[in-house]
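Prompt: May I have another protein with tokenized structure?
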Amino acid sequence: MKLYNSHYEWCTPLRFRHVAFDKGQKYRVRMRVRVEKTPGKDGEAFWAGVYDADKKRPCGGIERKTSQVSDSYEWYDVAEWTPEPGHYFWIGPGRFDKKGGAESSVQALYIDRLELTRIE
């Protein structure tokens, strides 16, 4: 999946009501992502997390700057938590001051895989 640099909203959700998981068990979600950086511009590369829509609170997340990521695909741990049907995974390109005229520090964000693993 390719996310473009024209925004930074939580644009790619995966709702856990569509995912098979063992109720009451702890899981780790991770993603394989590649960042196409804007040459010469440092800033946020991406942000991602798990959100509890019912309780309106985060369950964990990750943020990375362009200086912290390579140009190739890498795995990133996003969260460890106990999923419920009202939760969802989300990801977006890094934030920037669009109203102030700033441009994104990435050209695009590529999501290759998501992995949900039960933690014993």
Observations:
- Residues 14 and 78 are 13 Å apart (CA to CA).
- Residues 2-118 form a domain with the Jelly Rolls fold (CATH 2.60.120).
- The chain has a mean pLDDT of 91.
- The longest strand covers residues 106-118.
